[in-house]
Each structure stands twice: as structure tokens, then as C-alpha cells.
Amino acid sequence: MTALYVRGGQKLQGKIEPSANKNAVLPVLCATLLSEAPIMLRNVPEITDVTRIHAFFTDLGSTVEWDKDAHTLSIDHSTIPSSAQAKLPQAMRASIMMIPGLLARLGEARLEHEVKGCTLGAREIDPHVKVFEAFGATVSYEGKDIVFSKKGKGEGTRMWLEYASVTTTENFIISALTAKGTSQIVNAACEPHVQEMCTFLEQMGCTIRGKGTSMVSVDGCENFKPVDYTFVEDFHEIATFLALAAVTGGDIAVRNTQPEDFMLIDRTFEKFGAHVEHKDGWSRLNAPEKLVVQQNFTSHITTKVEAAPWPYIPADLLPIFIALGVRADGPAMFWNKVYEGGLTWHTELSLFGAHTLLCDPHRLITFGGDKLRPATVTSPYIIRVAIAMLMIAASIDGESTILDADPIRRAHPKFTDNIDMLGADVKWVD
């Protein structure tokens, strides 16, 4: 068990250079399997899943050099032998996005039946299976393994997703690059990290039309160019540091070269009386004296934050706004339209003295403004829930402990070092 010990009550202040987005880095790493050309990736975060993929590539026979101090990763897959066999890492959800590249390169990939990830609820792989089958792959069971196999190139296809799944969209795009002709996906996910993967693929010489929209067309690609790519800042991490300023009464500026992605996020901060300013490549939140839930013009309707696929507020950010709701005066409703298991941790908030009501698996009301107390709480295996608990603990005078906080390391390298620089008193305890 890994726990975080937090001595709270300090107003966090300072400047932060955020890391890259895990949800952009992992699909890009998976997509590199398509290419025999040398690839250089910069601003690569030292996180758990990157470590796993690095180990997998090395075992596969790729030439990979990871300079953790310089945050660079050079990859050459031309050294993978044709006799290589691929049993994908079971401990991370991103494994499934390596299948298109492995099918194109080796003709087969194996995945354990239960693919792990954050404990957000049921996360089926059926949409991915339909994508692989649409491009000519066969999928079968062999013991505890799911075996994906394919001979030759598939034909371009058109697919209409039942819902705008990020990883299914990414798998469709990567698979389409290995097919003949043009493919199109309707109801595509358009999150910033999906767009960033497309930008990387375009630099590799791929043709993708409709990036950032719900309808994306992809041409099959024969030749992939060498590429030197630098990942942009993680909008999740930027929003998290801004929320830390709001919840602790502090003043934090975060490097942000894509403030155009923050219009709705900014408006959501405003719902709690907190204002974000974007200037000269930085985003800053100087907290108000007190967080207060802002009343709607339609006064009989509770102020709410609705999380759904982009361009809604991302479900991954909902926990940090719940932390604001706990601290702010007044009631607020939080609606997770994506995951049915994303709010079950609300019972831990009562240990801090917070008043919440779970209406159903998707909707939670916070009745903020109560005096909170330090506590020992347990995080589920959800990255930003662990961070939300840390945020609340950091805002309370006294010593708190967050058990099972290790999911933070899956997305945010040196997270505690960064908040220590801002004036927090936080340390890992094994």
C-alpha cells in the first residue's frame, strides 16, 4: 500500500511547468509500431504506463533509448524480428491500442481477457473488437488470452460509433492507416489528446481529415516519415494545479500554450467564484477570499457541472470540481454521464466532514461550506479521485493520510515535488 501524508492549511503559490498528457503519450507510443523510421519524442513524462510500454518494446526487439533527465524517448522499431511474439501488458488499458500496429507488423497479438485501468465501472472491449474485425482481423479466445490475427492489408471502411469513445476512435484511426483506401469514422471522439495523436501521425506523413470533429477520414499510409515530436502540456494537469490554487486560497500560474481548450473549463471555475486568467502562455488562478457556488439566473435549478465526452467538461476532471464543491458555500450537482462507477468514492468525503448526497450512480450533490477536519481516507484506483482527496486534505489545517494514492503516479510525474514547490507539505509513505 502506498499512502500520501498531507499536512494541510497552506495557501499554495508559485509557477508550474506541467507534464505532457498521459492520454496523448500512450496512444502515440502505440502508434509508433506502424513505422520502421526513427522516431524522437520529447517532453515524455516518467509515468508508470510509459515504463511498461518501454519494457514491452524492448522485449519485442525494438531499439529504445529513454533519457529520463532530458524527457526524451528515441524509438526504432526496424529491429523487431519477424519471429517476435506479442503478449501485451495486462496492467494498463492502453495495451489495446498496440494491436493495430502489431497486426500490421507480426500478424498476431495476444491480450489477457481482463484489461486493467482505472476502476470507473464497466469498460468493454467489444467496440475495439468490432474495429479490428472491420479491418479484416479475426478475434478468438485461447485459454485466458484473446487472440487477434490478420493476414495482409484490410480494406478501408466506414464506422458509426455508438458513443464517442476515445480509445475506440484512436484504434480506428491507427487501424485505418494500415488499410487500403480511405476510411471514415462517425461520432468520433475529439478530445485534445485525440487531436494530438492525429497531429503526430500527420507529422509522420499520414493524411487525416476532420481532426477535432465528430467525423474523421483517414487514408491508408504506405510510407511513414521519421519524426521529431514534442508533446504539449496536459490540460488535466493544468486544470488540477489551478484547482489547487482555488481550494487552498492560493495563487498559482501554470504554463499553458493552448488556452483555447479552456473556455468551458474557465466557466466551470467561475461557477465556484474562481477566475482564471490566460496571458503570455500562462494560466493563472488567484483564489477569491471564499469559494461560493454561484446562483443560476433560473434560481430554482441547482448549479451543476455536467461531464461527458469533449467538448463537455471531461469526466476525468469532475473529481477536482467536486473538491471545489465540498469547499464552496452552497449546493452543487455533479453529473458523470460517462462512468457509472465514477462517484462511489463520495463516502470517503464524509470522513473529512463533508456533506454529500449520491442521487444515483451518475449524479452527486455537494452541500459545501461545512467546517472540515483532517482524516484518513482511502482512494479507489482512479487518478484524479486520489488528487481530489489530496486537494481537500491540503485545504484543511492538520494532518491527513490518503491510502492507496498510487494512481497519481500513473499520470503525473513528480506531482508531489511540484506541489511541495508551491508550499504544500506532502510526502509518500509506503
UniProtKB/TrEMBL annotation:
Matching Pfam families: EPSP_synthase
Enzyme class: transferase
Localization per record: Cytoplasm
Pathway assigned in UniProt: Cell wall biogenesis; peptidoglycan biosynthesis
Catalysed reaction, written as an equation: phosphoenolpyruvate + UDP-N-acetyl-alpha-D-glucosamine = UDP-N-acetyl-3-O-(1-carboxyvinyl)-alpha-D-glucosamine + phosphate
Molecular function per GO: UDP-N-acetylglucosamine 1-carboxyvinyltransferase activity
Keyword Cell cycle: yes
Signal peptide: none
Keywords: Cell cycle, Cell division, Cell shape, Cell wall biogenesis/degradation, Cytoplasm, Peptidoglycan synthesis, Transferase
Residues covered by the Enolpyruvate transferase domain: 6-418
EC number(s) from the headed UniProt entry: 2.5.1.7
Record's keyword annotation contains Membrane: no
Family, as annotated: Belongs to the EPSP synthase family. MurA subfamily.
Protein name, as recorded: UDP-N-acetylglucosamine 1-carboxyvinyltransferase
Species of the source: Aurantiacibacter sediminis
